Amino acid sequence: MNKHTIEQASTPTKTKPGFWSHFAISLTIVSGMLAANFSAKAAESFSVEVIGSGKPVLMIPGLMSDARVWRPTAEALSGKYQLHLISIAGFAGKPAIDGDLLPRVQQQLLQYIDQQQLQKPAVVGHSLGAFMAFSLASTAPDTIGTVVAVDGLPYLAPVFTRSNDTTVAMMQGQAGYLRQQYQQMSTEQLTAMTAQGLFIQATSQAHQQQVLEMAAASDAKAAGQAVYELLTTDLRSQVHNIKSKVLLIGASGAMANETDRSAAQALYQQQIATIANATLEFHPQARHFIMLDQPDWLTAQIATALKD
Q: Taking every annotated instance into account, which residue ranges of this chain make up the domain AB hydrolase-1 (predicted)?
């Protein structure tokens, strides 16, 4: 997730700044073409890179990032798994599409799974990609296998408000305002906004620069549409449909104190409370792009989750 917070991108609201920004400052998707027999036209909302062999695993990046963030992790897993690295339209240089974004990505991912005859693929998603993993698994519980959600939730808005009592109705006006703001941004403005929150995204300057470059190559209108959809789509009432195992991983390295860390863990836990087989893990040093900050630890967590 390379991005901008509600606080940065909008007029003052009831939302509160702080460590919650680390989640919002994120989310990611991208665009493209396809793999194997899947037609480019059918998959205009994403592209696919396939590496390795074995049990299928979809890997979905977050807002304004692409498959590059997952490639090292995928390479580490490629001896036992077939990794399908997704890049979503409009992000990190991928051509944007008009209209709804995330609903189309979900629909076309399910078509891709069917056409490629993937048997209960696991879904590993970061930020926006984690939201997509929850959406896929709750919409098609008999189709999706293990879910690993990396610093992403069934509903984004509570990250800003610090309350799981937040509803879509409360966020509708602000979501529309944010979408309009993004649509008016130049590449320079989008890049500058991203730069303000880089310390939340990753620890090293090299990784921060990687995040910034992906954002700079993204389409502002697509980013705004994604943010709007994330703030106006609440999956909490349907994640109980998920039948597979779920591992939710959080990052607390950018949080200022133990009070913030405890509050974040409680909020994350509440969002997965209705899922029958869900586990929560936090890394105390990692920042939002956990795969960049703590690659070995995250790869081990994913590998363990995928064993069953």
A: 57-298
